[in-house]
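Task: sequence design from structure.
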């Protein structure tokens, strides 16, 4: 059975999460482990991986990860694939996969503040008058706009 046929037979899945979360959000091993209520080792045993082939062909009896370009990339899964596996292979009747946004980290907050600062710089640069071609004129304009300390 081709992958597209298997996904076409997958009924709609109840995705819960923050408003605006789309169905294209991929989930990692930890989320799969929680949604299937299985150990991490079991999830790895269920996963369609092959040490000789980075992206093995679709296997309807396995949990098929998304395409990877490097062996070191973490395994991620589409929520519909997790639901298909739970229903068809594990025979779990009620399947709900939750896709939640991770809490804001210090790194994300720092990146957001950098982005805000870059936007302010862009606004200021866009608002500046035509730049004088002569360095002397530029210095005069700059010294007039900035009072001495």
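Answer:
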């Amino acid at each position: 059975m081709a992958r597209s046929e298997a996904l076409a037979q997958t009924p709609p899945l109840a995705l819960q999460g923050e408003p605006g979360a789309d169905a294209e959000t991929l989930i990692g091993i930890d989320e799969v482990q929680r949604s299937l209520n299985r150990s991490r080792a079991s999830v790895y045993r269920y996963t369609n991986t092959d040490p000789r082939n980075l992206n093995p062909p679709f296997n309807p009896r396995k949990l098929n990860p998304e395409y990877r370009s490097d062996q070191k990339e973490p395994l991620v899964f589409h929520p519909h694939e997790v639901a298909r596996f739970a229903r068809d292979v594990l025979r779990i009747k009620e399947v709900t996969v939750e896709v939640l946004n991770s809490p804001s980290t210090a790194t994300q907050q720092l990146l957001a503040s950098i982005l805000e600062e870059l936007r302010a710089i862009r606004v200021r640069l866009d608002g500046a008058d035509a730049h004088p071609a002569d360095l002397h004129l530029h210095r005069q304009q700059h010294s007039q706009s900035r009072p001495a300390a």
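The first helix runs from residue 3 to 8.
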